[in-house]
TrEMBL record:
The chain crosses the membrane at residues 12-38, 129-148, 279-297, 303-325. Keywords: Membrane, Transmembrane, Transmembrane helix. Residues 178-225 form the DZANK-type domain. This is DZANK-type domain-containing protein. Pfam families: DZR (PF12773). The keyword Ribonucleoprotein does not apply. The lineage of its organism: Bacteria, Bacillati, Bacillota, Clostridia, Eubacteriales. It comes from the Bacteria.
Length: 440
């Protein structure tokens, strides 16, 4: 009995539930950080309080589950809040009608985001809780992206295409014996088991070479390609025709290469993309974690200031890298080099006022087929495209690698690898650094 195939797709209700839980967990940590940095405080009123003892042997701030309801007034309007958290706190429970005062933090622009000050002030939270609230949103976001990616993969999977059935040999009752030796033939046999003779020889509508059924009026067999009529010449194979043509000098170096679509190059592009994404996360995480840790360890570096600086730099690096990744998804374009020029420029290198550096900027101007103007900007010794391309050259831009390919390479002595930008002799077929195919 065949086993029933189980679906690996995540059911939609489960996907929605997992996403909602992860988003809510991200909100709790992000709102805590926002209240600690930008929140205002006001004296509120606690009107419900319960502290349930869970485990006397639990770690610090883990012995009780505290539930607390409160309200406060901002600009004449009353706001309410409710929190549940783990703590060692053990205030007496509040009977009906009794209240207790407690300081509440809220966001001035949106007071509905609020918490007791003890849960969102850096001085009260402790170092471990601060680091947790910084890192946990990142972890929840990665888990959310992983869940969404898994769900999308399940939808994209398609059943494998069935292989076309092999042509069946059709045989009549009169052909059940070999014409050469008279041996009885098994049903469907193309050759005699006794003498090895082709049992299809002379049979109408059947190929004499492979035994496949022939369509009416066919000049060649659809199974093996052999001519049905002996007077019909056999077709010449493409490889033989191609090899018989005399090679032309430099002809393979004129025109844009189709190697950009080869599986090997596409795999290299995917590898480069993964490396770029890995570098992006490193550039985001280092300031996001490093600055707050420095604020915790250094007395003269306030933690709030270090957190703001770290988050700001991390967001800046994230935006820059996302824009760079977005460029790799742009369509390929072609154009013609219309101008080249260089100019001297100066830049301040920081520190003293007279700390200036002079350098040469090299510009290569390309007009695309779409009528847009593109400029390749290089500095000093990094003037590779400026020296490689000439005015009038036709080029193609490969966004997967951010590199350029020249149309006519027949007169060049060098060729640049479009994967790693390494300069190679024109005779090479592969890059001497990354071993990928050169676009020839």
């Amino acid at each position: 009995m065949a086993k029933k195939k189980t679906s690996k797709n995540i059911p939609l209700p489960i996907l929605i539930l997992i996403s909602a839980v992860l988003l809510f967990a991200m909100y709790l940590s992000l709102s805590t950080l926002a209240l600690a940095i930008w929140g205002d405080s006001v004296m509120g009123t606690v009107d419900s309080y319960q502290a349930r003892l869970d485990d006397t042997d639990a770690g610090q701030n883990r012995s009780r589950t505290v539930s607390k309801g409160y309200w406060f007034v901002v600009n004449g309007k009353e706001y309410r809040g409710y929190v549940i958290y783990s703590s060692d706190e053990a205030w007496p429970s509040l009977d009906e009608g009794k209240t207790r005062s407690e300081r509440i933090r809220y966001l001035g622009l949106f007071p509905y985001v609020n918490k007791p000050s003890a849960l969102c002030e850096f001085d009260e939270m402790g170092e471990v809780a601060i680091i947790y609230h910084i890192l946990s949103p990142i972890g929840y976001l990665l888990l959310l992206l992983l869940v969404i990616r898994t769900a999308r993969r399940g939808k994209k999977k398609k059943p494998a295409a069935r292989k076309p059935a092999a042509p069946q040999i059709v045989r009549s009752d009169t052909d059940m014996f070999c014409r050469g030796c008279g041996n009885k033939l098994t049903e469907g046999a193309a050759f005699c088991s006794a003498c090895g003779a082709n049992t299809q020889t002379g049979a109408p509508g059947v190929c004499t070479a492979c035994g496949a059924k022939l369509p009416e009026g066919a000049e060649f067999c659809i199974g093996c390609g052999k001519a049905v009529n002996l007077r019909t010449p056999e077709p010449m194979e493409v490889s033989q025709a191609a090899s018989s043509a005399p090679p032309q000098g430099g002809s393979g170096l004129v025109g844009f290469s189709d190697r950009c679509n080869s599986p090997e190059i596409l795999a290299a592009a995917q590898k480069n993309k993964k490396s770029s994404i890995g570098c992006m996360w490193i550039l985001v995480f280092v300031p996001l974690i490093g600055f707050p840790v420095a604020g915790l360890l250094m007395d003269d570096f306030p933690f709030g200031e270090s957190l703001v600086i770290g988050v700001g730099i991390a967001l800046f690096m994230l935006v820059v890298n996302l824009l760079a990744l977005r460029k790799t998804k742009q369509p390929m374009w072609e154009g013609v080099v219309v101008n080249k020029y260089s100019k001297e420029k100066s830049e301040h290198r920081g520190g003293e006022d007279d700390n200036w550096r002079t350098y040469t900027e090299y510009n290569t101007i390309i007009n695309t087929d779409a009528g847009k103007k593109k400029t390749i900007v290089e500095k000093d010794s990094g003037r590779h495209m400026y020296d490689y391309l000439s005015v009038g050259d036709r080029v193609r831009f490969h966004p997967r690698f951010g590199t350029y390919e020249k149309y006519d390479k027949s007169k060049d002595r060098i060729i640049y690898c479009n994967v790693c930008s390494m300069m190679n002799p024109i005779q090479n077929d592969r890059c001497k650094r990354c071993n990928n195919l050169l676009f020839k």
